[in-house]
Amino acid sequence: MSAQSQTAPASATTAGAAPDHLAHNYHPLPVTIATGEGAWVTDVDGRRYLDLLAGYSALNFGHRHPALVEAATEQLGRVTLTSRAFDHDLLHPFADRLTQLIGPLVRDGGPGATPMMVPMNTGAEAVETAIKVARKWGYEVKGVPAGQASIVVGHGNFHGRTTTIVSFSDDPDARDGYDPFTPGFRLVPYGDARAVSDAIDETTVAVLMEPIQGESGVVVPPDDYWPTLRRVCDERGVLLIADEIQSGLGRTGTTLACELWDVRPDLVTLGKALGGGVVPVSAVVGRSDVLGVLTPGTHGSTFGGNPLACAVGLAVVALLETGEHQARARDLGTHLHARLASLVDDGLLTGVRGVGLWAGIDLDPARGTGRDLCEALLARGVLAKDTHGSTIRLAPPLVVDRPDLDLGMAALRDALTQLAADR
Ligand SMILES: Cc1ncc(COP(=O)(O)O)c(C=O)c1O
What we know:
Layout: E1 33-37, E2 40-43, E3 48-51, H1 54-57, H2 66-76, H3 91-102, E4 116-120, H4 123-142, E5 150-154, H5 163-167, H6 172-175, E6 185-188, H7 193-199, E7 204-209, H8 225-236, E8 239-243, E9 267-270, E10 282-286, H9 288-291, H10 307-321, H11 324-345, E11 351-354, E12 359-362, H12 370-379, E13 382-383, E14 385-388, E15 391-394, H13 402-422
Parallel strand pairs: 3-13, 5-6, 5-7, 7-8, 8-9
Antiparallel strand pairs: 1-2, 2-3, 4-10, 9-10, 11-12, 12-15, 14-15
């Protein structure tokens, strides 16, 4: 079950309780946050918590990073929305700076071509954009017969919540009750490049995968997976699309996770941290000959590329250009994984996966669920969230410092020791 999908128990509306006007599409931990700064938040009663979730990686730069708050505040005093009916003075600068940062990490579209970007808002919209563009490219450039485009995707994927995207999810919580679904997707086991190759035929326009599956529990594929996907896609004339919405922008110690394997996708989807935890900002970046299939009126969004989003996005790009956050993720990530490995050695965890400041950790189900562990952490002043079963994801803001990380790891050890003792 996906943690982002857990519904509140029916008892949330027990007779006699105050009416609850909020739909129950989440089951949050019992904490009400009032303020946040850096890696810390404070609840309405003044209690402080170390945030080891960082808004599912939307807060890679922490809460209210001064440079991001300054950029947003300054822009609030100028203009916030124009719609794409008119240009504004930050739209092209944002496109330029983002493609300068990401361009060298993706395919460019041939000699002399420079990468392009399409600005959107949420992660799901970026994924939808990539799917639409890949299909259009398939019909107009590759010559796929009308209505037959297929896209290969991985089991355990999480790419968002729209009707088309849940059409190729294999999480019953994400899908059940939302059919009829969008056709045109082929699910294959994640991490198995042979299965991808076998699923490709003349109708296939793209392979769409997360470089590392976040929501599934930070599942890292075999080292030869992405290089093999790149080779297979090249040989078969298929686009390789990396969904870097959660894995990208510093989390793994590199700007894109695909850099870990030296692979340049044709298109990359970005979101979450691109908005610095301030406003929703997403984008598709990649080959100009692919994104070039978009023509006026064929795709868009009222808020996509709005001035406030571009101001924050530019400030995010500036933070990433220094390489400082990527380096922090590498250095502190090594420390985090050493601490987590010691919990496995001591029999407190059954498994740990991940890279950089990103980890999926497995608890023995006999000792409790991921939710039990998150509640035990909450009681110790640490915020984390289960992904499914007895797995939780740790994704501290990249601005966390080593003493704070150690404090979080001490709380984790204490919580796990208590769960072990209680069974
Ligand atoms: C890999 C990936 N893609 C897409 C999304 C969807 O992003 P959003 O919730 O902003 O629509 C997520 C969100 O968790 C994600 O992890």
